[in-house]
Write a structure and sequence with these properties.
Layout: E1 2-4, E2 7-9, H1 22-26, E3 29-32, E4 35-39, H2 40-47, H3 51-60, E5 70-72, H4 75-85, E6 103-106, H5 107-116, H6 120-159, H7 168-182, E7 188-191, H8 196-208, E8 213-217, H9 224-229, E9 237-242, H10 250-259, E10 263-267, E11 274-278, E12 282-286, E13 298-303, H11 306-315
Parallel strand pairs: 8-9, 9-10
Antiparallel strand pairs: 1-2, 3-4, 4-6, 5-6, 7-13, 8-11, 11-12, 12-13
Helix pairs in contact: 2-3, 5-6, 6-7
């Protein structure tokens, strides 16, 4: 292990660390001081670095880690966390053997840390962690009201003395409908420099809305879009309109289609801005290329006028 420019540089790039499922990573997210955070030792484990090295990197770049990115637990918080750690589904270092109070990272802090760990492994691990934070945030946002309603529904069904297997599909439909009712309709949002996670999660939410087709228009697309599109619903067709100079290979498209069909690539030079069209019904204007989300200040807006949707779809 060597260090350059206050960053950690991994010597052995061949270590396969991207092996933890999102549901396992969410078990490592705790709520402390009203924030969802991960323990420094868990972050170190996922990145395959010693905890000491992770914290050294934070101290050497302390100006990049304000309190809403990373903070040290007090004794009471550490003691409360000690009892929760026993329930984790992933192996951890011996928390009881630590002689110092641990640090915790918010999702912004982990995004900042991933920028200091400049290697392919750090990028892949960060994507998994970001997805876990997205799932945890959705769970917390809907947990209170959704599960209260589900409890009432389940109680009524049990009173009727019917078999559970007869209602499994009905439970899934009810759960989906409750989530739809609680979801706030997106109109527009502005993202500032460094809000990589928030911008990434919103694009994923937009992609998941598609039931039949996704049209993406971006002149500067690269293979990062394939990672985002892997989250789409099954059998949703994707068409990408870009320029001949875009940094995405046909081989990448072929491999993607073997697992997540169907993706088509077409070329055009008629567009300057970036757009996403969902099912020919929803139109989103993206102020930055999808490969540069969160690097500079930009906006994402939903265009409500159906006339513009039809013009964009039929313009090429």
């Amino acid at each position: 292990m060597e260090e350059k420019n206050n960053n950690i540089v991994l010597i052995n790039e061949k270590v396969n660390v991207v092996k933890y499922e999102i549901e396992n990573i969410t078990n490592l997210i705790y709520t402390i001081r009203g924030k969802q955070v991960m323990l420094d030792s868990d972050v170190a484990m996922l990145y395959h670095y010693p905890t000491k090295r992770i914290n050294e990197t934070v101290r050497r770049n302390i100006e990049r880690f304000p309190e809403n990115f990373c903070f040290k637990l007090n004794e009471s918080e550490a003691e409360n966390l000690r009892s929760q750690i026993a329930t984790s589904s992933l192996e951890k270092e011996n928390y009881g053997g630590r002689r110092y109070l641990p640090y915790v990272f918010t999702e912004q802090g982990i995004a900042m840390l991933s920028g200091l760990l400049k290697n392919d492994i750090a990028i892949q691990v960060s994507i998994n962690i970001m997805n876990a934070f997205v799932e945890m945030r959705k769970f917390i946002a809907t947990n209170g009201s959704v599960f209260k309603r589900l409890t009432n529904i389940e109680y009524k069904i049990l009173e009727q003395n019917k078999m559970l297997t007869e209602h499994e599909k009905k439970f899934e439909k009810v759960f989906d409908e409750l989530q739809k009712n609680e979801k706030i309709e997106f109109k527009q949002s502005i993202f500032f420099d460094g809000q990589i996670f928030d911008a990434y999660s919103l694009i994923i939410d937009i992609i998941k809305r598609a039931k039949q087709k996704i049209l993406i228009i971006d002149n500067y697309i690269d293979d990062n879009i394939l990672k985002m599109l892997s989250k789409k619903n099954k059998n949703v067709e994707v068409v990408i309109l870009t320029t001949q100079n875009s940094n995405i290979r046909k081989l990448d498209i072929q491999k993607f289609n073997k697992q997540y069909p169907v993706l088509k690539l077409a070329y055009t030079n008629k567009f300057h801005d970036r757009f996403i069209v969902i099912d020919n019904k929803e139109l989103y204007h993206i102020g930055a290329s999808l490969k540069d989300l969160g690097k500079k200040c930009f906006a994402i807006s939903k265009i409500e006028d159906n006339e513009y949707i039809e013009k964009i779809v039929n313009y090429n």
